[in-house]
Amino acid sequence: MEFHCHIASRRQAMARRLAKVSLIALSLLAFGPLARAQDATAFVAQHGVNAATDPSQATWHVVPTVQQGQVGKAMPQDHSQFAQLKGPFTSPEQVTKACLSCHTDAAKQVMSTIHWTWKAYDPKTKTVVGKNHVFNNFCVSPISNEQFCTVCHVGYGSTDPNKFIPFDHRSQDHVDCLVCHDHTKTYHKIPFIGGNPAMEKIAVRPGCGEVYGTDKPYVEAEDLAKIAQSVGSPTRYTCGQCHFYGGGGDGVKHGDMDSSLVNPARTEDVHMDAKGLNFSCQECHKTEDHKVSGSRYITDMMINDHQFMRGSPHNTQAASCVSCHGQTPHKGNDLNTRIQAATLNMHTRDIACETCHIPEFARGGLPTKMQWNYATAGKLAPNGSPLVINDSHGWNTYWGVKGSFKWAENVVPQYRWFNGVERWMNIGDKVQDFKNQNGVVELNAIQGSPTDGKSKIFPFKIMRNNQPYDTQTGMLAVFHSFGFDKDSYTMSYDWQTSIAAGMKAAHLPYSGHYGFVKTDMYWPIEHMVAPKTQALSCMQCHADNGRLQNIDGVYMPHRPKDHNPWLERIGLLVALLAFIGVSLHGLIRFGLWLRRRH
After folding, report:
1. CA pair distance 84, 90, nearest whole angstrom
2. pTM higher than 0.85, yes or no?
């Protein structure tokens, strides 16, 4: 009896050792990739960053230390001491000439950039893109509206509202140095005078105060000497004077850029937080010889070559999230947080960082425009002025010269597979060639799929409009929106006249028959990065009616198309048989053990 007990004891000990070995083997199989990663504790010690110990805070990111106050750095020299900048200046071109007396190559460099030319070549689609070559569904096109639109051009043109000087016909002294380098926050380019600043008192057109940069009925002449003596590196404010106000107002166009980013809190953007990292735009948009990296028209979702923190000069791309945080940004310092980090890192191959870390856009207290309907434009108030209607928020929902609008704050993005390629609708293209399955014209159709190996799921703002087109030729219409002449829509309220003028300026035929067609435009969401504690949770995507419910290539537990009933039945049957087999085996072993014991 003692002999049998001894044998049983040895078998139990062996069983315990076997169980331990099996557990270790399973752990190695499950966490092998983590074993190859840098030890989290050593990583923390090296970089001086504390990892999260709470499992719900398993993600943390390491970024290079950036000295605060890097936004709007002063120039190496005090420009107030330069005799060339003492003035007085009677024209902005005189300021540029003074700048070029030292910065001899600056104007030539600027005139080769997209900020000057408004055009670029997309090698992926083999098309010319840029403001003057593609449509948008805000103000549609600068063509025939240049004297207004050049308020956001880095140059000076004619002050005659009806005379536009083509960019390639301008001399170097027509480059506007002050629009990017002003540090007084007083410099403003005035609409309808070719992008020039005010050199005398100018009346503000009704409803256009935001574009003129004032809430007064007039603007005063600029003190160009004072501004020229106060220049410095571009700031979020100077970049934002164009990029925050695109589309006709603060926050209208992008959704993830508005004037709240001049001085944002950390909850709005962790990188531009005025009391934290305080990044300038150039931290990510590397600038070399006045060429700013990062293009709205040409992007790359899968960067193969090395990127530096501030962007790579080799591929013209701005720094991406991966440039700083790497391909596996999530770390952990214990078993639980490492498991969660490994799970999150599995997502980075197919999901852009922005998808989880920008949960909503237009989060800074300002709304963004989501819909516009040109077909409703033309209504006048009883006094004959354009009708203006505001909602309870004070948001403008109707303006007679533009039509009706819908705005929103804290907007959940739309998601698409995106490989960086956009099929832009060029001036002269026909609407039929760009309609999606719902009959809506996509002005920049997003390309990508879950199987091409080049795409990631990316967040977008989708802007919607109802804009005019030629019903006979099928061409989307270029129309003369703004101007003091009788053909502009702001003066005539006549679509027939304004379309005819716009199509003539674009050198396109017009049949004289127009209608309205629905359009969509996609705007990538890349700013307003939230703190990691506000990143999306698993169930915000992997659930009924989750954010990715309409995205193919990802598993949704409750989505019927992600299930194969027969395969699941076979799987359940195999699992059941395995359970029965294991149970029978256990019962037999138990019975044999009892038999030996007695």
Report:
1. 14
2. no
